[in-house]
Amino acid sequence: MGFLGFTMFLCLLSVARSQEAMDIDIDLLPRALIIEYPETRLKNTSEELHMQCTSWRVAGESNNLSPWRTVPVECGDYVKAYMLGRSYYFDLEMVSKEAGGYAKSLQLKEDGMDAWIFDIDETLLSNLPYYSDHGFGLEVFDSDQFDKWVLEGVAPVIEPTLKLYEDVLKLGIKIILLTGRTEDKRNVTATNLMNVGCRKWDQLILRGDNDQGKPAIAFKSEKRKEIMMEGFRIIGNSGDQWSDLVGTSTASRSFKLSNPMYHIP
Ligand SMILES: *[C@@H]1O[C@H](CO)[C@@H](O)[C@H](O)[C@H]1NC(C)=O
Ligand SMILES: *[C@@H]1O[C@H](CO)[C@@H](O)[C@H](O)[C@H]1NC(C)=O
């Protein structure tokens, strides 16, 4: 049961209880936006809501919610505060440090065939300026609007991932960028990346004509397979979506970056 399902379940439960007592017409009751606990337990509504939204976010991050379409309306302010506050940054930094420590711990071969895959959106480049104009995930994704933003080529870098990128490069690991962006965005994507400090990579793989309509998991798995067929050992993979990381031909280790704003199946 998702968060909303759970909310509805509790609402129905309380409706069922009050109905026993007063015989109320269910259809006439207003729909509660927050969970209705018995009053004795409702110490502080905003604290309860905060905890509920944290549960929703953690369930999303751990891939227990999949698939979900938009941020629950009750959690809009929560997600906004998370994205703009320091928590998001700390979460990204933690993952970046773990990944960097792992990369440094490896005994790399000297054939130059160790590779690290980076996703782009919400991994290396941040679309937060776009999402701050579109409700931080409250709105259903609009690909036309989003494309316009991408074509501006002004997405800021995600600093903790850039740090990992530089550490990985220094170790002599090849960088492969694998994105769901389409071929027609190659130039703007490369230019945007270079402008924010990602200057060197071995391959930039975008969705080509043959990849249209493929779910992200299938597209990225296929591309990883091709990378492996070229002789690369994919020792690490960084992405903000589970569909960047799971499937087949997976990396030795995958690192999931936080993203409570949207889910790509
Ligand atoms: C409820 O919790 C919030 C956040 O912790 C706090 O700002 C607010 O003052 C609290 N309200 C009450 C009535 O205790
Ligand atoms: C993008 O296109 C312009 C104009 O064709 C070209 O000068 C530039 O080198 C291209 N940039 C990249 C990163 O490919």
UniProtKB/TrEMBL annotation:
Keywords: Glycoprotein, Signal. InterPro entries: Acid_phosphat_B-like (IPR005519), Acid_phosphatase_pln (IPR010028), APS1/VSP (IPR014403), HAD-like_sf (IPR036412), HAD_sf (IPR023214). Pfam families: Acid_phosphat_B. Residues 1-18 form the signal peptide. It comes from the Eukaryota. One of its GO terms (molecular function) is acid phosphatase activity. PANTHER family: ACID PHOSPHATASE-LIKE PROTEIN. Belongs to the APS1/VSP family. This is Acid phosphatase. It comes from Centaurea solstitialis (yellow star-thistle).
